[in-house]
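Note to self: keep these together.
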Amino acid sequence: MMSPKTSHLIYQFKITLREIEPPIWRRIQVPASYSFWDLHVAVADSMGWLDYHLHMFSFHKRNRKKTLDIGIPDGEYDIEILPGWEIGIVEHFTEPGVAAVYVYDFGDYWVHDVLLEGIFLKEQGVKYPQCIAGEGACPPEDCGGTSGHYRILEILGAPDHEEHQETVDWLKGHVKNYYPYPGDFDPKKVHFSNPKKRWKTAFAGR
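Structure:
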């Protein structure tokens, strides 16, 4: 249930993918009533991730020796990860300037900086979440991390490369915008999924 204290507020975040030049980043606005699961869905959708893998948000708290990790609990990893759908973003993003690290895909290990830029009043007639700015095409899923991403860009930039057509074909099913890749990012084309439906799809039968 939405708290009366947060029902009229939105949180504005800047998400920046590390170790990529030129920078790949997004600026999104989400309801303050969001859980960390809801925020994950908004981050993944705005970045362009297909949500095939695990994720977590990590906070470095002054009074904790270890990071506070929120996402999808999984016994395979030696990390205590709290369930994101049970925790509201207001509990840890307490004021503008608070930052967290968002990790997507523990294999390729994509690390994003998530900065709370501001807390604002909702605008009448505006549907949230929304992406209001950003640059750069999201790397393909399962491409092998940063080095794999750069290798794919190198191959795509050389039409005579022996792996060019194979790589173009491989992109289907690994990026949202199959062709041409990488294209220009347009925040107006971001489609946000319903986080409740995404959760039911992800955890049906568990």
